[in-house]
Amino acid sequence: MARKTKVEELEEPDRIAGQDHPRETFEFVGHDEALHRAARAIRGGRVPQAWLIAGPPGVGKATLAYRIARYLLRHGGTDAGPEDLSVPERDPVSMQVEAGAHPGLLVLKRGANANTGKLMTVLGVDEVRRLAGFFGMTSGAGGWRVAIVDTADEMNDAAANALLKALEEPPARAMLILLSNTPGRLLPTIRSRCQRLELRPLGDDVLDRELARRLPDMNAGERAQLVRLSGGSIGAALILASDDGLQMAADAERLIDNASAPDFAATLAMADKLARMSGGIEAFGSFLVQSLADRIRAKAGAGGLDRWIALREKLISSFARTHALHMDPRQTILSAWRALDQTARRGAL
Question: Crossing angle of helices 220-230/204-214, nearest 10°?
């Protein structure tokens, strides 16, 4: 599978190698309840000023956001289009959205640091302030303007306050769509001004069918492994299938398996390898946390799980901090190894 260039990684960090970007994706499966709720509101002329689409990473939030945007830009808040909010791929609106060139759509996400050229760690206030000019301009041919914030979790405090101001003064025929992996971290005043669409992890059968469609050369056994490891996230499953994903997942499980008898040299070698991989520490952290969650669920009701639950929360914070602050990945892996060792000494999971 061809690797992305550094420019592509910077411009679209949410693109999975070899797969369509969410704005290029027209299939949307496994979330009928959320889709029907959105369709009822839009086609019934009761379009909210803002939606908060919440759910785990890679579960389909951006795909739904672009689906809603295409429909509004094509049909507005009417029932002129299909009940599933689909717009054909060759429709002019779809083609403009896919090219990132529709004047009625604004996507806010982390940009490049002007000084370093690296991807920003937060979604800053200058980016969010673009909403004022966008919503203040004359509507396009379809009469609607849609802004997608991907993701709202990455806003700093100043950006969150600027977004709140936009929500307090909503213009006509405009929609703001916020994507969030952890909506509880958003300001309560932001959440209260949005209608919420919750996307749950995909069921195993749905995920297996979707993987079979997207990865036709993969055998059933490999797909079953991806389903087991991905936690109901199609995005996580596709990342696992690319590059060294499965190996990283196996390394994460091995780190937990050997928690009570750790191999320092092997752990250090793994940390060095991850430090050299683009996005390696984030992917490994996700797999480690997911594996812990699966094991905790499997032993629900058993004693001694509180310390493992606390460890999982600690690891989530640790890997997030490493990503946000560009900390040394090796130190994060070694800290996780020590925390697993200490927790396992009080009883294996």
Answer: 130
Residue 331 CB neighbours (<10 A): 13
Question: pLDDT, tens digit, for every residue of 295-315?
Answer: 898 888 777 789 999 999 899
Contact 110, 122 (CB under 8 A): yes
CATH for 6-198 (3.40.50.150, 3.40.50.300, 3.30.750.200, 3.30.413.10): 3.40.50.300
- Token pair, residue 204, equals 């195993």
The number of residues making up the chain comes to 349
Note whether 292 and 312 are within 8 A (CB).
Answer: yes
The two beta strands, 174-180 and 50-54, are parallel
CA distance 62 to 191: 18
Structural domain boundaries in the chain: 6-198, 244-344
Read off the pLDDT of residues 168-212 as tens digits, 9 standing for 90 and up.
888 889 999 999 988 988 999 999 999 999 999 999 999 999 999
Residue 248 CA to residue 232 CA, distance in Å, equals 18
What is the number of other CB atoms lying within 10 angstroms of the CB of residue 33? Answer: 11
Q: Assign residue 335 a region: left if phi > 0, alpha if psi is -120 to 50, beta otherwise?
A: alpha
Nearest alpha-carbon partner for 202 in 241, 178, 238: 238
Max distance between CA atoms of the chain, in angstroms, equals: 65
Q: Is 0.70 surpassed by the pTM of this model?
A: yes
Cα 6 from chain centre: 20
